[in-house]
Amino acid sequence: MVKEATGIVLKSISYSESSLISRIYTKEFGKISVMARGAKKAKGGKAGMLEPMNIVELQINLNESRDLQILREISIIQNLSHIRSNIQKLAVGLVMVEILDKTTQANDQSEILYRLIQKSLITLDHNSNNHLTLLLFYHLQFSKYSGFNPIQDQCHQCNDLLTEANLHSQNGYLYCKNCNYNDGIYLSNDNLSLLKLLSSTHINDLQSIEINSKTVQVLEKYLIQFMVFHLQGMHNIKSLNFLNEVAFA
Ligand SMILES: [Zn+2]
Q1: For residue 179, how far is its CA from the centre of ligand 1 (angstroms)?
Q2: What is the pLDDT of residues 217-229, one digit of tens each?
Q3: What is the pLDDT of residues 142-196, one digit of tens each?
Q4: Ordered structural domains, the chain, with CATH
Q5: Rounded to the nearest whole angstrom, what is the distance from the C-alpha of residue 152 to the centroid of ligand 1?
Q6: If you measure from the C-alpha of residue 56 to the centroid of ligand 1, how many angstroms do you get, rounded to a whole number?
Q7: Separation of 167 CA from ligand 1 center, angstroms?
Q8: Rounded to the nearest whole angstrom, what is the distance from the C-alpha of residue 151 to the centroid of ligand 1?
Q9: Backbone dihedral region of 85: left (phi > 0), alpha (psi from -120 to 50 degrees) or beta?
Q10: Would the pTM of this model clear 0.90, i.e. be above it?
Q11: Percent of the chain as helix, strand, coil, to the nearest 5
């Protein structure tokens, strides 16, 4: 059956001399794989449209009993040229799509995750600064929508309100100082407040939040570790190495 969809390209790999297989996170069907025959041909090839992060409109031959769908037509909805011309933005965008790719199952549709990735990429493209704050926002929302909220008000053990906390290195929950699991990442009172602020701010208003680079690094590390504990597929996000090189070196 011929179906239309809107999606974000996650990854494309070569298949045979002239074709590509691409994974695309669609609003309508969740993550799907498509075969793009002839995509690498010099004339009329669609390889450029199948670059990661592109926001595209698709026409596919959908057969839900198969893992691989056939791509008929594709066009770009949104050109993300600013992301591709700024190495830090590029790294942030690649981390966003790789997390979505690695932690979601095929055909598991989620309109809320779709809206998050689309809005995050468009905001990353438009905004002139604050890429890393946007990434923290993305991690927070992504984890929440996936069922695990990184913001925890109370100690996992004694239920006291947290004024500062350590991430337990065995179970991925926050503990107070008295409960003494001080072997994991430490979050100060300011760190905890910033996480709450980020979580309650609209994506369009993130530019008003200023976080120094050291704090960004702590929060990034915490959110990634938290997700590694709670979301399957998070342990091997390769683009994080690239991000560390261009943003935190
Ligand atoms: Zn405690």
Answers
A1: 4
A2: 999 999 999 999 9
A3: 999 999 999 999 999 999 999 999 999 889 999 998 997 667 899 999 999 999 9
A4: 2-78 (2.40.50.140), 81-247 (1.20.1440.120)
A5: 12
A6: 48
A7: 12
A8: 15
A9: alpha
A10: yes
A11: 40, 25, 35
